[in-house]
UniProtKB/TrEMBL annotation:
Superkingdom: Bacteria
Cited SUPFAM superfamilies: cAMP-binding domain-like (SSF51206)
Organism: Streptomyces massasporeus
Protein name per its UniProtKB record: Crp/Fnr family transcriptional regulator
Bilayer-spanning residue ranges: none
Segments forming domain Cyclic nucleotide-binding: 7-76
Cited CDD domains: CAP_ED (cd00038)
């Protein structure tokens, strides 16, 4: 992921510190499903160690892996946008340590401090844009006829 979407580069120190004040440490074993597409998005994570795969349900096929996430990356953005439902699924590829955030608490902090809220919204928006592009490229790789995604 680009440096502008990882936590260390995405938020000014004061906003990063405020966000981290809402974090709790969690861990997941390899193979653990963290969330499923279509279910309630009530939390999110910043990965400390390990790798998480994002996937997309494809009817009649195995889920398509869209992207792998690692250190410093935001896992989950659906918590930020109503109706707060996961748009992708996620599974730990390896043991994962992460900071977990309660979405309601972060949204409340964003509403309380508009500058903090704008910084979070800008960061999450960058992540969404990056993930949409990654999804498009991955799906073209998997399902489009050879050469159909190229731009001449």
């Amino acid at each position: 992921m680009t440096s502008t979407t990882t936590l260390s580069m995405a938020l000014p120190v004061e906003h990063r510190d405020r966000l981290m004040g809402l974090a709790r440490e969690v861990s997941f074993e390899a193979g653990k499903r963290l969330f499923e597409e279509g279910r309630k998005a009530d939390r999110f994570w910043i990965i400390r160690t390990g790798t998480v795969l994002l996937d997309l349900h494809v009817p009649g096929r195995r889920p398509a892996v869209i992207e792998s996430l690692g250190h410093g990356e935001l896992l989950g953005w659906s918590w930020h946008y109503a109706p707060f439902v996961w748009q992708l699924g996620a599974e730990a590829l390896s043991p994962v340590r992460a900071w977990e955030f309660d979405a309601r608490a972060v949204r409340a902090a964003c509403a309380q401090d508009p500058e903090f809220g704008r910084a979070i919204a800008t960061w999450v928006g960058r992540v969404v844009a990056h993930r949409l592009q990654a999804s498009r490229i991955r799906l073209l790789d998997l399902y489009a006829p050879h050469g159909s995604g190229s731009r001449a």
